[in-house]
Amino acid sequence: MSLKLYNVLTRKKEEFVPLTEGKVNMYVCGPTVYDYSHIGHAKTYISFDVISRYLRYSGYDVLYVQNITDVGHMLDTGEDRILRKARQTSSGPMQVVETYMRDYFADMDALGVRRPDISPRASGHVPEQIGMVETLIEKGHAYEVDGSVYFDVSSFPEYGKLSGRIVEEMEEGTRVAVREEKRNPADFALWKRADPEHILRWDSPWSDGFPGWHVECSAMATKYLGETFDIHGGGIDNIFPHNECEIAQSEAAHGRAFANYWLLGGTLTLDGVKMSKSLGNTMTIKDALARWRPEAIRSFILSSHYSNPIDFSKTAVEAAAKGWKRIWSALSLVRSQMGAAPAGEASEEVTALLAQAKANFIAKMDDDFNAPAALAVLQDLTKQVNKLLNEGSGQTIGSLTAVDALFQELGGDVLGIIPDGTAGSNSSGADREAGMIELLITLRAQARANKDWATSDQIRDQLKGLGVSLEDRSDGTIWKVE
Predict the structure, then answer these.
(1) Do residues 307 and 6 lie in contact, with contact meaning Cβ atoms separated by under 8 Å?
(2) What is the pLDDT along the chain (482 residues), one digit of tens a residue?
(3) Are 377 and 409 in contact (CB under 8 A)?
């Protein structure tokens, strides 16, 4: 089965055919770095982390570009988000940017999200943005008014093709001054003349000002990936106006398709309500990591298809955490038995089981990166592995090594939920957890040998209360997370 994905642009599932065989150029809209990253960011960037991981796993040479917005993202009031934060904190705007950009990457590292190949900043690519605006003016797609430049949507008949919006139905700008100087209410800013108090400003042919939010992605994507590239990703909440404007200005400037496949992730709500600072119901990634393991958060996010909305709640995350612990406890048991396992190749039963699981996993991921179904394959494999271990079959060093390798390959390399010692995986914590359980089992065995049944029962019961069940067998005691 070949890789198929749902293309938001065409509104249908299509076979993925990259522009260059064996190579994928992918751009994903990055964060505006003016505050701490929240769990909505975690959903978007874990989803595209898994997509990029799977593309690489499938043999593609992936060039993944994700921008950093540090200028031009305006509030409805007309104030730049970065400048507002700088004013609130009595800091310089680039001080704000550096603080929250570093914090964003630290959060992503902690979640096991592999860094993009290139993370360009908007403020570092102002010349490229000015160049694109000049091209759009020359081709009749943009006009200048008193030092500001706007894209003329009437010059691009396909405007609205991604979001499905009709120009006549689009809302007008929120500021009267903006409405008055634009030819059409739907026209959007490519360059803005800076007010005297505006700190972030650059020289341009039109005014001392700053670029609009939308033009940065077009300029940086084409700089690093070409005028047409394979995949454009981001959150569905940016489909309009941001992604729509990207397409219009890019295709108007270059006369060719901007991105061939558009993958947009669903929104995240918190306890059924859209996150909002005004409602006080946001949760930062740091707050989430203080309560749950990164693998549990990843497992929760991967329990829903990347394109679907998902509701973040304590109950849902803890349910995902239990599912992850079942996988991890089975793998920990496999690893704990390797040292004493008899020599021998993997059994035919184990080889067949693993081959079928791998084929099922790939089939699910080839179907529009269906991570929930792929995760279910690992859960089912966990049950089968536990059954083999409980029956005492398939326990040669070859069988155990093969099981360990497949879990690491599918659960670790692709889904990023198996600790492997890489940055952000928190493997030391998982290993400590397994090690402490093994230590308690050893202490219990000593108590049993000394006929100290009270201590033995106490250890067993307390582990049971923590969700860890013990099974005494002739060859020793095994444990698993219920």
Answers:
(1) yes
(2) 699 999 999 999 999 999 999 999 999 999 999 999 999 999 999 999 999 999 999 999 999 999 999 998 887 777 888 998 998 999 999 999 999 999 999 999 999 999 999 999 999 999 999 999 999 999 999 999 999 999 999 999 999 999 998 776 554 433 334 456 899 999 999 999 999 888 899 999 999 999 999 999 999 999 999 999 999 999 999 999 999 999 999 999 999 999 999 999 999 999 888 776 656 678 999 999 999 999 999 999 999 999 999 999 999 999 999 999 999 988 988 888 887 778 888 889 999 999 999 999 999 999 999 999 999 999 999 999 988 887 766 678 899 999 999 999 999 999 999 986 333 334 445 556 766 787 788 789 888 888 889 888 888 888 887 778 887 866 577 676 66
(3) no
Query: Do residues 156 and 253 lie in contact, with contact meaning Cβ atoms separated by under 8 Å?
Result: no
Q: What DSSP string describes 213-249?
A: HHHHHHHHHHHHH-SSEEEEEEEGGGIIIIIHHHHHH
Q: Which two tokens stand for residue 226?
A: 């070409």
Q: How many whole angstroms separate alpha carbon 87 and alpha carbon 34?
A: 11
For residue 111, give both structure tokens: 């979640």
d(CA 455, CA 52): 50
Contacts of 129 (CB under 8 A, 6+ apart): 122, 191, 211, 215, 216, 219
| Domain 4-288, CATH class in plain words | alpha beta
To the nearest 5 percent, what fractions of the chain are helix, strand and coil?
Answer: 50, 15, 35
160: Cβ contacts below 8 Å, ≥ 6 apart: 166, 167, 170, 244
Euclidean distance between CA atoms 188 and 153, whole angstroms: 8
Start and end residues for every CATH 3.40.50.620 domain found in the chain = 4-288
For tokens 């307390």, what's the residue? 462
Q: What pairs with residue 12 in β-bridges? A: 7
DSSP class per residue in 123-160: GGGHHHHHHHHHHHHHTTSEEEETTEEEE-GGG-TTTT
Of 67, 80, 75, which Cα lies nearest the Cα of 218? 67
Q: Are 262 and 269 in contact (CB under 8 A)?
A: no
Q: How far is CA 413 from the centre of its chain?
A: 15
